[in-house]
Amino acid sequence: MKRSRTLLDKRRDFVMNYLNTNQAKQMKVLVAELSDSLFLTERTIYTIINEGLSTDARA
Questions:
Q1: What pLDDT digit, counting tens, does each position of 23-59 carry?
Q2: CA separation, residue 22 to residues 1, 6, 29, 55 (Å)
């Protein structure tokens, strides 16, 4: 199933904002919380994080 670009952008923004807001927690805990709330696999969340960090580094 193909997702709309706006949905993917909103999801990426949510994940990155959640990480920035909860920086004091360990990454494993953050990924588990995001996985439970967004119904995504941990691998998908790590991919979103890596893509978000790489786009932030370019900007």
A1: 999 999 999 999 999 999 999 999 999 998 887 666 5
A2: 31, 24, 10, 20
* Residue positions counted in the chain: 59
Q: Is the pTM of this model over 0.85?
A: no
HEC-encoded secondary structure of the chain = CCCCHHHHHHHHHHHHHHHHHCCCCCHHHHHHHHHHHHCCCHHHHHHHHHHHHHHHHHC
- Classify residue 34 by burial, with Cβ atoms within 10 Å: 0-12, 13-18, 19+: buried
Cα separation, 32 vs 48, in Å, equals: 14
| C-alpha pair distances (Å), 59 with each of 9, 22, 29, 54, 55 | 16, 22, 28, 9, 6
